Amino acid sequence: MIRVVVVDDEPMVCAHLRTILGSAADIEVVAQAQDGAEAVEAVVRHRPRVVLMDLRMPGVDGLTAIERIAKLPEPPAVVALTTFDADTYVIRALRAGAAGFLVKSTPPEDLIGLVRVAADGHTVLSPEAAQRLVAMSADGRRRGDDARRKTDGLTERETDVLACLGEGLSNADIAARLHLAEATVKSYVSRMLVKLDCTNRTQAGLLAHEAGLVKR
Fold first, then answer.
1. Which parts of the sequence carry 4-aspartylphosphate (predicted)?
2. Contact between 35 and 60 (Cβ < 8 Å)
3. What is the pLDDT of residues 33-55, one digit of tens each?
4. Boundaries of CATH 1.10.10.10 in the chain?
5. Which fold has domain 2-134?
């Protein structure tokens, strides 16, 4: 069972998401919160696998909540919710530790599938969305230089795996493309996250875009 916490300052949005997710046999909404402080408390109390987090809330906003949740032991996957398909605030959320982002208008059947993807530890972010987000970054050139300095220390195979993360590929897909065992890919990813000081696969994928490793 995939335990989910829903966070939004509009009760109707929470109710809508709860209804959609509750229709799936393998998903349970264990709590909902209306600001970032409540969200952190709910995560500590209920230990969900996935959190759907609105970013723009009064009081403690979603960005602050994501930063706090990322520092918890064994944090859940936090997926940012936004009204827009590309938003500079989303960039900050992803760099703070969010596993991806969803537009609030995402169709119900897609929302359920994407929650499952997040629960499995994969990126909830299309390569196209990543490219748009990086292009929108006001400090893109400086970040590109920083990203290239970080990735210069990777081996050739690690660089290949990182580029695949930038495309949003799963470990199984990367293994098939690079002719590696899936366990080997998992080991590469774990080591790279430490080397690159990334919290999760999504941050690493964005770094791959910033470093120019992903073919456009």
1. 54
2. yes
3. 999 999 999 999 999 999 999 98
4. 140-211
5. Rossmann fold (3.40.50)
